[in-house]
Amino acid sequence: MQGFLNGCANAIGADHVVTDEALMLPFLTDYRQRFTGRALAVVKPSTTEEVAAIVKLCNLHHVPLVPQGGNTGLVLGSIPDESGKAIVLSLNRLNRIRELDAANNTLTAEAGCILDHIHSAATDAERLFPLSLPSSGTCTIGGNLSANAGGTAVLRYGTARELCLGLEVVTGEGGIWNGLRGLRKDNTGYDLRDLFIGAEGTLGVMTAAVLKLYPLPKAKLTAIAAMTTPDKALDLLNIAQRYCGTSLTAFELVSRYAMELVLKHFPALSAPLPLTYGQYALIELSDSESEDHAADMLETFLEYAIEEDVIRDAAVAQSIAQSQSMWQLRENISAAQAMEGKNIKHDIALPTSSVSDFIAKTDQLLQAHFPGCRMVTFGHLGDGSLHYNVSAPPGVPVEAFMDCTPEINRIVYDSVASFNGTISAEHGLGALKREELVRYKPPIEIDMMKRIKAAFDPNHVMNPGKILI
Amino acid sequence: MQGFLNGCANAIGADHVVTDEALMLPFLTDYRQRFTGRALAVVKPSTTEEVAAIVKLCNLHHVPLVPQGGNTGLVLGSIPDESGKAIVLSLNRLNRIRELDAANNTLTAEAGCILDHIHSAATDAERLFPLSLPSSGTCTIGGNLSANAGGTAVLRYGTARELCLGLEVVTGEGGIWNGLRGLRKDNTGYDLRDLFIGAEGTLGVMTAAVLKLYPLPKAKLTAIAAMTTPDKALDLLNIAQRYCGTSLTAFELVSRYAMELVLKHFPALSAPLPLTYGQYALIELSDSESEDHAADMLETFLEYAIEEDVIRDAAVAQSIAQSQSMWQLRENISAAQAMEGKNIKHDIALPTSSVSDFIAKTDQLLQAHFPGCRMVTFGHLGDGSLHYNVSAPPGVPVEAFMDCTPEINRIVYDSVASFNGTISAEHGLGALKREELVRYKPPIEIDMMKRIKAAFDPNHVMNPGKILI
Questions:
Q1: Measured between alpha carbons, how far is B378 from A172 in angstroms, rounded to an integer?
Q2: Where are the alpha helices (DSSP H) in B137-229?
Q3: Nearest-CA distance from B159 to chain A in Å?
Q4: Which of the residues in chain A have pLDDT under 50?
Q5: Where is the FAD-binding PCMH-type domain (chains A, B) (predicted)?
Q6: Residue A303 falls inside a structural domain
Q7: B186, B197, B380 ranked by CB distance to A422: nearest
Q8: Considering only CB atoms, which chain B residues are within 8 Å of A385?
Q9: Torsion over CA of A457, A461, A466 and A468, rounded to 10 degrees?
Q10: Does residue A229 belong to the interface with chain B, where contact is any CB pair within 8 Å?
């Protein structure tokens, strides 16, 4: 392998081929610290041409590569396995914003650009890049696109896929494809862009992307509403969509237990409504007119929802500070769960019309098998997307409960499948869910994926073992 | 071939295997009546299973098939070549709306459903299916998706691609893939859906789709504004987006000559503004609140645009009838062109920031080579998408001018390429532009397309000669 490593050093400079175990460690351990893989080296090119040179070397020497951005993925997609045969291809040095075309509402960023930097560049040009994720200070746009990230603004603006107009990709054999088109319409052949998006680095390495920008809204308003059950939250969603159209930019569900966990572990935060209701909805409106207009719209539909007995109470943020603290209640759920101890997580989505029935049925099934287990249910209800997490019953040791993961996964995923849902709404498959994929996808779909994989990565070097077994 | 035809008759009934030349003719001639191909038969299955049976027979007997919906395509994509070796696979009998899930805002339609029938079903459920095309009384959703149709509502709702959540497809070898998922988020592997969308029937046969619905807007308002030049129209677009956000649902450019042509050939229509300006913009707002709210918004930004000298005049429709006649001015441009005589058409798109420079530069190039030629320039300016059509100079015989098509195409497409635009914004490639594709796409992109084609259609039966040579 020394010949390969020398080749890498010649191509991009010895300083950027890291083989020191301690220096490699952060690149080998996943975000949730569940797994540490091994690698031949961490290789850090700084240009598209350098990426192409490394991919060619990998093909020549049959060395697998694992593309990595901010390494914030949740499905073990951006770290290598324990064989130690692969390299990590870090895109962090490809971090330039190449162009901002305000009149075309586009920004061209390299794969290693941190999401928050893209937000800032857009804001400086009085534009909005709407992708909104808790990890935005660390995650990179290449990773966001490779995983087709979701987040809290999907209801209005779509997933990462829908925010991308064009790509530059180093192919599985080390060619460079310049597909950096900033066009809203382009019907010239097969949609290669959307094939690379969401492929988790198994078909090629994204090196840059043309992203869609939007006008900055003139006002943003946040509110929290309380209701008894998830079906009431769905009724509220329907009313909100009718009254507010696309001004509705976020609609998040938070169960009471999720809210309690945040308040327990983040004592500086306070609940804007009494903790006596079953469910809470966090609502955001963005308005192109004025704050007054948005406030009128928000108050009108909340009043209507109270009159119709859809919600029991509501609080509208009266300041930016209040709005931020409402959002912190939502954004700190994951951290609060971690502080409380491990639980069994599911990143699922359903037709919105089935969310309520799914929760009722699945909660019941889980209680029947694991009496007293506690549900941390929250997520992007507007998209039918839920984080449906199961915590140990009071008194049951966490580690013993975690051993039930396979059984609990089976109950949850079988239920998801019975409602035509998905077992990965926004995190992807990585190495974590590739076996589940085979269970829940029809064989013909797996077969088509394998044909694409074989066509694009004939030498089996691109992030092997991810998505497909 | 009698064995093959008998097999088809056994699979779907002899009545649905048409070999009579006169009965086949409408299926063999393209929408613009430029070309008539030949076929072994027109085969009309009525279920997904029947489609699969036919595709299997085609594989077995090495008979190419040409999927066809409403046959309204503009690039010779849905008719066979003159060899007479292929069958036309008509999807017209797969025309059921299988499901409408109002709470999930989805509708599941079979490929042969006529677009207007889908509009009606959505409206009956107080929902909007926004795809808006002049051929909506004839075209089918399968064709719309296969060509990734655009139209006048893309600015707000996206192309056909963005309106589809899931597909059912008969693969190139006759398998059935049920990908009819009604999910807003689903990150479980490669994006097969978007690969079939826009593939013009060269990778598989779509048999059904899950479509996105939207709340019906409470009000729709139409206006026409007049300006001197296309760059002023782009300034107006920018103002409209700032003032109206997503309420702006259409922004169409119509050049004076295009307007004059419509008024000449449709004398019942009248111009809402004097014909003394260079360019006109047709604007539509959709509002989730009220007609008054939309009217305020529209008048405010038009007044601002007049004050800022962006536009010279504007007329707001005061009734549904007025609104319809404004739209008829736009929608009859194609018909008016046909009545005036043939011209050389280009379906292009550019970054919106380059549209004005493109028009100025390309108009000048064309005038230099073909003095006096007349430009019928119109289209979906909000998406950077133009119908950029060239008519003969006064006094030059149309047929002589049409002989200059290759030279004029070269000037236009080279100019498009120099601005990073596309030579097919919304009509696709079909058999008409496949040679151009090779000229303007990088070889690495063509190579990736060919790999996909080989992986999905190993026996070369799926709509051969379309998109790829």
A1: 41
A2: 141-146, 154-157, 192-196
A3: 8
A4: none
A5: 35-216
A6: yes
A7: B186
A8: 184-185
A9: 40
A10: no
Residue with tokens 């008048």: B299
Each residue's pLDDT tens digit, A154-200: 999 999 999 999 999 999 999 999 999 999 999 999 999 999 999 99
Query: In chain B, what residues touch A440 (CB-CB under 8 Å)?
Result: 188
- Does B267 reach chain A within 8 Å, measured CB to CB? no
Last residue of a domain, one of A296, A317, A334: A334
Which pLDDT does position B288 carry in this prediction? Answer: 87
Closest to A192 in 3D by CA, of A155, A160, A161:
A161
Dist. CA B365–CA B385, nearest whole Å? 20
Residues 6+ apart with CB under 8 A from A311: A225, A226, A227, A232, A236, A281, A302, A305
Question: Which of A242, A353, A425 is facing B103, going by the closest CB pair?
Answer: A353
For residues B231 and B328, state if they share a domain.
yes
For chain A, percent helix, then strand, then coil, each to nearest 5? 40, 20, 35
A136 touches chain B (CB under 8 A): no
- Interface check for B176 against chain A (CB to CB < 8 A): the answer is yes
pLDDT score of A190: 98
Q: Cα distance from A21 to chain B (closest Cα, Å)?
A: 32
A432 inside domain: no
Do A210 and A223 have their domain in common? no
Q: In angstroms, rounded to a whole number, what is the distance separating the alpha carbons of residues A153 and A130? A: 7
Contact A58, A85 (CB under 8 A): no
CB of A183 within 8 Å of any CB in chain B?
yes
In a domain, A236, yes or no: yes
Q: What is the distance between the alpha carbons of residues A177 and A167, in angstroms, rounded to a whole number?
A: 8
Tell whether B326 and B227 lie within a shared domain: yes
A138 touching B (Cβ < 8 Å):
no
What is the reported pLDDT for B116? 98
Q: Which two tokens stand for residue B160?
A: 């056909």
Nearest to B412 by CA among B454, B342, B356, B363: B363
Domain count, chain B: 4
In a domain, A80, yes or no: yes
Q: Nearest-CA distance from B422 to chain A in Å?
A: 6
DSSP character string of B366-399: HHHHSTT-EEEEEE-GGGTEEEEEEEPPTTS-HH
Find the residue in B nearest to A451 (Cα). B455
How many Cβ atoms are within 10 Å of A279's Cβ, its own excluded?
A: 26
Does the CB of B247 have a partner CB in chain A at under 8 Å? yes
A chain contacts of residue B350, beta-carbon cutoff 8 Å:
183
Q: Which of residues 293-322 of A touch B (CB under 8 A)?
A: 297
Q: Which residues of chain B have pLDDT under 50?
A: none
Question: Quick one: how many helices (H) and strands (E) in chain A?
Answer: 17, 18
Residues A176 and A106 in one domain: yes
As a whole number of angstroms, the distance between CA A408 and CA B90 comes to 47
Contact A215 B241 (CB under 8 A): yes
CATH number at residue B32: 3.30.43.10
In angstroms, the Cα distances linking A408 to A213, A233, B79, B204 are 41, 26, 53, 38
The predicted complex's ipTM stands at 0.96
